[in-house]
Amino acid sequence: MPVKAVVGMQWGDEGKGKIVDVLSADAELVVRAAGGSNAGHTIIRGGKKTVLHLVPSGILHEYTRCLLGAGMVIEPQRLREELDVLEQFGTPRVRQRVGVDPQAMLILPWHKSLEHVREARPDARGTTLRGIGPAYESRASRLGIPLALLAHPELLQTSLEALFLDYAPIFELGQEPVITPAALHAELMEVASWLVPMFTDVSLETARASSEGRTVLLEGAQGVMLDTLHGTYPFVTSSSTVFGGLLSGIGLGHGAVSEVVGVCKAYATRVGHGPFPTELDDDNGRHLAAFGGEYGATTGRLRRCGWLDAVALRKAVRLVGTTALALTKVDVLCDLPEVRVAVAYEDADGRPVADFPCDPYRVADLKPVYRSFAPWATPAPGEPLPDALSEYISFLEGFTRTPVSLVSWGPDRSQTLLRDASGVCRSLDA
Ligand code: IMP
Ligand code: MG
Q1: Mean of the pLDDT values across residues 118-143?
Q2: Residue-wise pLDDT tens digits, 368-418
Q3: Does the pTM exceed 0.85?
Q4: Which of 13, 101, 309, 331 is the catalytic position?
Q5: From the alpha carbon of 130, which atom of ligand 1 is closest?
Q6: Interval between CA 203 and ligand 2 midpoint (Å)
Q7: How far is the CA of 132 from the centre of ligand 1 (A)?
Q8: Which ranges of 251-385 does DSSP label H, i.e. alpha helix?
Q9: How far apart are CA 145 and CA 138, in angstroms?
Q10: Given pLDDT bands bounded at 50, 70 and 90, which one contains residue 310?
Q11: Domain boundaries, the chain
């Protein structure tokens, strides 16, 4: 069963783009399941940098087909820009290789306007302002506009009018200029001309490829700690980012998947608001931000940085059923005097807390209990991992009961080692 899934284990930005790029070298199909252009996957190949927000990272492999699943929310203008950039980048046959499920939802200008209104308030969540939350709200209210309606112009018109009934009162309160349903319909008819030909049944294509024994990779977006149910609500995204969310967003049963790789950075970052127990507001934090290049790929915001939270990681492993971990950006910790990992917490009254609380409102009061590790030198291709790094990895493996099967210390393929169960490493192409 050659279906592999890649899931982010923290608050997003774990380096999934590179891991998917590395693991999809021989994949015939790469499939995204949920979220939209709130994601930003940075890939650097041959010195050229591409940031993908919607199209799965596998698109840079010439023979890989890339699918956008029913669980996604898609702003057509962004998709078009991304296809154009990929074409300018010299990527062959982009439009033939990208397929979009007609059940995915459209993000409309109304969704973005509503989010702008909300995020201007004092209780803002720090979202990416891409209209993700409001588009999922529309879906849940049964007033959403699935891409499928682009192929049904009359139904699209009445559906836009119905949705607008919900939005008009909100806009009357604010000063937002808003597009009318009729004008939006005209814009969407132009979108239909290039987007409808890309429609495909993502569930069927994925299941068929899997049953024919072709290599399929499922590409998660965001991270487990931003999961709409299990993250630190309300500071979460609006989709399910756990492995189950991948399956439902695509329309695939779990039996097809043989491996679930959890991507975890050797430290932690978070963008937007919300509790973050291991956050650092000191020179170590600034070091992580500077050497890790921790600026949001989507919004350009400086990411909040902190030590790796192994307690949160253990919860992520439980929620996902991770079969292996990929540890990324280990080089960023190289020049620090020590490396710390949170292994438990104390609450506001000094009582020990062993597990990440399921009550999200308790998380803000937690103080991490750290274990200290010696720093390591940057790994080198073809050489064994530095001892101090091996020790750090063995600790994480024991704590999470999950093997670390891949270690990465830079954006390039050559800066990657595969690790077997006994800790022996080999280069990707060896
Ligand atoms: P939304 O997904 O735009 O609604 O944003 C909700 C929260 O999730 C905010 O804190 C965002 O910064 C965060 N978020 C959403 N997508 C990503 C991502 O791909 N990487 C990191 N954080 C993200
Ligand atoms: Mg990102």
Answers
A1: 96
A2: 999 999 999 999 888 889 999 999 999 999 999 999 999 999 988 889 999
A3: yes
A4: 13
A5: 3
A6: 25
A7: 9
A8: 283-292, 310-320
A9: 8
A10: very high
A11: 3-75+202-427, 105-197
Closest-CA residue to 164 (of 187, 136, 183): 183
What are the two backbone dihedrals, phi and then psi, of residue 53, each rounded to the nearest 5 degrees? -110, -30
Name the amino acid, one letter, at 128: T
Tell me if residue 79 falls in helix, strand or coil. Answer: helix
Class of domain 105-197: mainly alpha
Q: How far is the CA of 156 from the centre of ligand 2 (A)?
A: 33
State yes or no: is 41 an active-site residue. yes
Residue to probe by mutation, ligand 1, list 52, 57, 222, most atoms within 8 Å of CB = 222
Whether domain 3-75+202-427 has CATH 2.60.40.1080: the reply is no
CA dihedral (16, 22, 27, 30) in degrees, to 10, reads 20
Q: Is 13 known to be catalytic?
A: yes
Q: How far is the CA of 128 from the centre of ligand 1 (A)?
A: 6
Q: What is the mean pLDDT of residues 82-105?
A: 95
- What is the pLDDT at residue 430? 63
Residue nearest to atom 22 of ligand 1 (CA): 12
Closest C-alpha among 89, 97, 73 to residue 147: 73
The residues whose Cβ lies within 5 A of ligand 2, an ion, are 13, 40, 297
Percentage of residues in the chain having pLDDT higher than 70? 98
289 and 375 in contact (C-beta within 8 Å)?
no
Give 229-245 pLDDT, tens digit per residue: 999 999 999 999 999 99
